Amino acid sequence: MRAKALNGSAPRASRLGALLAALLLAAGAAAQQELPANGLLLVAKPGLEDPNFGRSVVLVTQTPDFHTVGVILNRPTRARHRGKPLWFGGPVMPRVVAAVFRASAPPAAPAFHVLKNLYFSLHPDSIDALLAGKEANYRLYSGFASWQPLQLQSEFGRDGWYVLPADEATVFRKDTEGLWEELVARARKPRA
């Protein structure tokens, strides 16, 4: 799952990797709803030629054992899972259904905290509970994205990604046509 990207400097990669790690590791020992955000958006830079991630927007989170996982937000498919739309989440285990969902309390089945009231899960019990519910407070994905230790930092070193804060509106945006272009433009804007 290595991404080909534009050349970048190692010190910049270390800073970006450290920033990503700091933002994703901010969790601590508090209850899940009191945790700070544990999710970011990775926006593929225009030079990223990896067929899995070129022109992609990926919601990533870090698991308690420090693995980085996520789903591609801007790849809808025509496939369905038990009648519900299925998005392409990533190249890892494409037959596994993953979900990003809203919940006002931590779910009973294992799930990773991403943002306040927002979770990511691969657990079949989570998926079944979402499908049995009446609210459409989730999005389903076939497969997911995952990086080996230091792999994402290496991709930052090759200048492959922009990093932006994650927000619920972007995660659940209905029409993702043009999302990548919008976020690339936002990432390129000078910051005060």
Number of helices: 5
Helix content: 10-25%
Stretches where pLDDT falls below 50 for ≥5 residues?
A: 1-10, 12-32
Number of strands: 10
Mean pLDDT: 84
What structural class do the secondary elements suggest?
alpha+beta
Give a brief outline of the structure:
It is built from 5 helices and 10 strands.
Describe the structure.
- By secondary structure, the protein is of the alpha+beta class.
- 23% of the residues lie in helices and 32% in strands.
- It has helices spanning 10-24, 124-132, 151-157, 168-171, 179-188, and strands spanning 39-44, 57-62, 68-72, 76-81, 84-88, 92-102, 112-115, 118-121, 138-147, 161-165.
- Strands 1, 2, 3, 4, 5, 6, 7, 8, 9 and 10 form a 10-stranded mixed sheet that branches.
- The protein starts with 9 loop residues before the first helix and ends with a helix.
- Residues 1-10 and 12-32 have low confidence and may be disordered.
Topology (elements, then pairings):
Blueprint: H1 10-24, E1 39-44, E2 57-62, E3 68-72, E4 76-81, E5 84-88, E6 92-102, E7 112-115, E8 118-121, H2 124-132, E9 138-147, H3 151-157, E10 161-165, H4 168-171, H5 179-188
Parallel strand pairs: 5-9
Antiparallel strand pairs: 1-2, 1-10, 2-3, 3-9, 4-5, 6-8, 6-9, 7-8
Helix pairs in contact: 1-3
